[in-house]
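Hi Y.,

Following your request, here is the sequence exactly as I used it, all 460 residues.
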Amino acid sequence: MKRICFLIPDGVGIRNYLYSDILRDLKSEGFELSVWHGLDPKIIDQSQLRIGFRPESFPLATFKEDAVTQLFRESTCYARLLRGQEITSNPTILSNWHNGKFSFQKKMLIKLSEWLGRTFRKYENILQTEKLLVSRLRGSQAYKVYKKQLSEIKPDVLFCTHQRMPAATPAMLAASDLGIKTVTAIFSWDNLPKARLAIRPDYYLVWSEYMAKELQFFYPEIKEDQIRVTGTPQFDFYTKTDDIMSREEFAAEFGLDPEKKWVCFSGDDAKTSPHDSSYLRDVAEALADQQDIQLIFRQVPVETTARYSKVLEDFPKVVHINPFWEKGKYWQQFFPYPKDVSHLVNLAYHCATVINIGSTMALDFALFDHPGLFLKYDHEENQEWKTETVYRFQHFKSMDGLDAVGWINSKDEILTKVRLAIDHPDKVATDRQVWLKKITVDPRVQPASNRILQELKNLI
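Below is the corresponding structure, written out as tokens. Let me know if you'd prefer a different format.
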């Protein structure tokens, strides 16, 4: 019997793998399954409730990288960002580099990484430096521990649930050196231009042909036969009618009026949208007199509502629905409950439209053929953060030539665009289905879990 081990280095892989059909489908095909993780054990309990069985679990020890290893990693990241900026002619690529408040030591590491990155920004030099990084990782304590543990787990395939976590690198490297086939999935539609492809497995699972080409564009050393187009499990949930509540049930649970049209304002994190509370206020003011519309607010799960509190106080008719997440002190302690999966499905199914700053939620809503609305105006003329910059990010190139979302270009347009999305959805984001199918394999045709299952079977 063949064994597949899912390496889940942090909370990113929980929803897509521990709550989806993938583990259940693999088990039904006769595979032995293991989960190798450093997560809160409560997450495995929640997975068992969702999928009906408890996979074998192994603890993943964590190790701190030494300064030289960090320097190799960060300098190659900066060099790849510089190269990415050049080959795309898109200066926003560099916005993915470090910014924020750091310790003195971290600031010095970043500055040194920038200097080194500039010196070997040529593609051939980047590859050589990454070889040095791999060589150094083979001498690390993490590599030795993971190699010993993998010898005990004995998987035929090690599947890392996302590609950007540095802590997974020595584990995947140890697996490759033991002759274990290695696989990773690109987690999000905006990840590849960010130069955070931390691991180098045998195979890469991507959302679409568009992403497959993007992967080879930024990483030409990856061969075409290493890439598999599967879609992403995060959209599979929208094909499950069992998760959909009746409008009356959903309204009763969250204090909504089932007779009104529901509009969802989906919050972003503070880095993506630092003026998000002002945008919520604008939308709440614009819709305040609309007797047939009810505004729902859902903040990004990893943040509180602190910066929105005054808006929610001033507009008590806005229905705030808190994400069903466990929040912790550290990132590994944040995780969604299965209820949050069905909650998102119901929001996308029952709401007429979603409003935000460039969120993936527009794709979620498109799965039920509901148009998304992106806010595209600034609050102050000379403010440092600008929506113009946001929508020049590389992943929005996927929209070129398409009427993918409705654009709200000023506060005065909010009511008009929302009414149009509600009353005439066929006239807003008319290419939303084309855009959706460009970004990902359509789960309504074949769920990603089925495609991933088949690819893993083929590998073994």
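DSSP finds 18 helices and 15 strands in the chain.

Thanks again,
Q.
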